[in-house]
Amino acid sequence: MKKSSFKRASWTQRFAHWGVQSLVAGALGVLSLGSAQAQTEIKLGHVGEPGSLFAKSSDEFARIANAKLAGKAKVVVYGSSQLGGDKPMVQKLKLGTIDLALPSSVMSSEVDLFGIFEMPYLVADRAHMAKIEQSVVWPVLAPAAEKKGLKIIGVWENGVRHITNNKRPINKPEDLQGIKLRTPQSTWRVAMFKAYGANPSPMGFSELFTALQTGVMDGQENPYTQIYSAKLHEVQKYLSITGHVYTPAYLTAGANKWKSYSPEIQKALSEAAKETQAYVYKEAAADEVALLEKIKAAGVMVNTADGAAFVKASSAIYEQFAKQVPGSGDLIAKAQSLR
User: Fold this and answer.
1) What is d(CA 73, CA 40) in angstroms, rounded to the nearest whole number?
2) What is the 3-state composition of the chain as percent helix, strand, coil, each rounded to the nearest 5?
3) pLDDT in tens, 117-170
4) How far is CA 4 from the centre of its chain?
């Protein structure tokens, strides 16, 4: 009896032991699966609000990329500066703490040659930009960015910029005299508006609405898509159509993080970035018409500025840029020759 009892107890103990082992193995499997899923999330951050061109572009890219990735990884979009402003996100790309971002003007503070897109009235239209992309961005600017730890995988759009403010309509550069104007964190945008007579101050986009609402800033300059999606028209009286700068946006990865991806993931992301461009340009063109009408309907007073006066006032900034940034004169000449 004792011997039989011992055998029964022994088998019971064994079954209990195996049960514990199975539970532990299952738990470890779940943890491993969760870890794998966490590792395959590709975070894409941008500063655009819902409905902005940045938001629409990023969501379309994620849709295309995730279809191509087929479960190997997943692009997840974080808009509205959830991962930080443009400058912090660029730094996070370099550190590898985020995977992708959509910087625009801030690139000129990382790589001097990107200041070419801070030059007023340089880009005539999207057809002109397409030529500049092939002849200037990919052969010159993209390699320069990679040396600074930033891998550009797509060239999209932020848009054509115009001025809003609460003081007066802006018809000529002298109308900007004394106006406190928020700019992106771009050395050359600040220099440009100083040359026009404004009092420019760099500020993160996420802080802009409050700064305009409280009077810390009198005005700002952005494409219609950023103005409308961030509701800046609700705290601004005047919109002056200046079209002073066309700003590309660059889908960008950290160079080191990019190297850690498999060739299949790199291929999927690169292809998706390029395929998204046509969608971006189509949406941008539509926004230029529809959003201007919505801004007018909201009661903002709109005027068309004297473009010739602004072009004339811009010559000094071109000369300054060419002197201070080696190689920029040739790039400007190249871009202008492609009109």
Assistant:
1) 4
2) 60, 15, 25
3) 999 999 999 999 999 999 999 999 999 999 999 999 999 999 999 999 999 999
4) 75
